[in-house]
């Protein structure tokens, strides 16, 4: 077997779908199928259970995948370590966050000092970030809700209040504070499940024995504020949105509920090599939010 076979197997195992894996790898589907078949022949056991056109990783495949992940992870760590030895500006860092706008200022500071670093960003929900960390697809996550799992290290870098934004013509606009029962039946503009605003809203309503009414789901914080301003509904936004002069105008209220705040954390794995570029970004981001709070 060779590294190409192992890489192909890892991708197919992650998708459990030949055509999706072939699309990601940019190879022909028949060629990918033949590669997997040759690997199974070499190993002497099937790695997938096949039912028609569907495939599922079986117990042999799961055992093999754990070893393949470890082996390819070690090789990737070696590549990063060599890049670090050659100099920080030849390195790379992959970062995931629920809201990429959160990264703009610390990333600008990082790139001013290290313009040669290759930076890759992805906008991800919390469940996706957990999968990305486990698969070694990202070095660092900037998460607004806890990411828990084996070998994950988390550092709090920011804690801020979350406020309720309402249209300026809304009956609540004249108030300074509101409790959750008063919001029953109000249409909310929020994010899809998996993102922090939706998780916080669901928790606050569940604690009050209620269910929220959702008018719109969006992954774009700027769009959420704009839609609230337009009168589509109300929504939870972090205090930084209130403090910013930019964006459409809305009225702001404090929410009378425990733990109505956002905690921003930097998360990375502690069981693998963290590149110099990733360590430096972690330090820059930590310092940025420490001085900004």
Describe this structure in words.
This protein is α/β, with parallel strands linked by helices. It folds into three domains: 3-71, Winged helix-like DNA-binding domain superfamily/Winged helix DNA-binding domain (Arc Repressor Mutant, subunit A, Orthogonal Bundle), CATH 1.10.10.10; 88-157 and 263-292, Periplasmic binding protein-like II (D-Maltodextrin-Binding Protein, domain 2, 3-Layer(aba) Sandwich); 159-261, D-Maltodextrin-Binding Protein, domain 2 (3-Layer(aba) Sandwich). It has ten helices and twelve strands. The protein has helices spanning 3-15, 18-25, 29-43, 59-86, 104-113, 126-135, 196-207, 221-230, 239-243, 276-292; strands at 48-51, 54-57, 92-97, 118-123, 140-143, 152-166, 177-179, 187-190, 213-217, 235-238, 251-256, 261-269. Strands 3, 4, 5, 6, 7, 10, 11 and 12 form an eight-stranded mixed sheet that branches. A two-stranded antiparallel ribbon has the order 1-2. Strands 8-9 form a two-stranded parallel sheet. α5 (104-113) links the parallel β3 (92-97) and β4 (118-123). The model has no long low-confidence stretch (mean pLDDT 89).
Category by helix and strand content: alpha/beta
Number of helices, where a helix is a run of at least 4 consecutive DSSP H or I residues: 10
Could you report the average pLDDT, rounded to the nearest whole number? 89
User: What order do the SSEs take from the amino end to the carboxyl end, as H and E?
Assistant: HHHEEHEHEHEEEEHEHEHEEH
List low-pLDDT spans. none
Principal-axes geometry comes out as globular
- What is the gyration radius calculated from CA atoms? 23 Å
CATH architecture of the largest domain: 3-Layer(aba) Sandwich
Under the CATH scheme, which class of the largest domain?
Alpha Beta
CATH topology of the largest domain: D-Maltodextrin-Binding Protein, domain 2
Could you tell me the strand content as a percent range? 15-25%
Please tell me the total number of domains.
3
Q: Helical residue percent?
A: 40-55%
State the major sheet: 8 strands, mixed
Q: How many individual β-strands?
A: 12
How far from one another are the termini?
53 Å
């Amino acid at each position: 077997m060779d590294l190409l076979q192992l890489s192909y197997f890892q991708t197919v195992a992650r998708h459990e779908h030949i055509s999706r894996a072939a699309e990601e790898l940019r190879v022909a589907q028949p060629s990918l199928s033949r590669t997997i078949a040759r690997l199974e022949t070499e190993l002497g056991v099937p790695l997938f259970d096949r039912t028609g056109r569907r495939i599922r990783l079986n117990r042999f495949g799961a055992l093999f995948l754990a070893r393949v992940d470890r082996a390819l992870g070690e090789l990737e760590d070696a590549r990063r370590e060599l890049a670090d030895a050659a100099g920080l500006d030849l390195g790379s860092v992959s970062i995931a966050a629920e809201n990429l706008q959160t990264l703009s200022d610390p990333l600008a500071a990082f790139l001013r000092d290290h313009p040669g670093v290759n930076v890759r960003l992805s906008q991800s929900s919390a469940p996706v970030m957990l999968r990305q960390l486990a698969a070694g697809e990202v070095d660092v996550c900037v998460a607004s809700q806890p990411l828990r799992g084996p070998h994950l290290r988390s550092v709090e870098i920011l804690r801020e209040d979350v406020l309720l934004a309402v249209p300026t013509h809304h009956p609540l606009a004249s108030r300074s504070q509101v409790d959750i029962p008063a919001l029953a039946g109000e249409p909310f503009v929020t994010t899809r499940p998996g993102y922090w605003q939706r998780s916080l809203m669901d928790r606050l309503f569940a604690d009050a024995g209620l269910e929220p009414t959702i008018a719109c789901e969006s992954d774009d914080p700027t769009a959420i504020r704009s839609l609230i301003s337009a009168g589509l509904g109300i929504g939870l936004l972090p205090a930084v949105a209130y403090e910013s002069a930019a964006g459409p105008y809305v009225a702001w209220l404090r929410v009378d509920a425990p733990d109505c705040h956002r905690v921003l954390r930097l998360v990375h794995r502690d069981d693998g090599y963290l590149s110099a570029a990733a360590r430096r970004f972690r330090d820059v981001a930590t310092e940025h939010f420490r001085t900004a709070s």
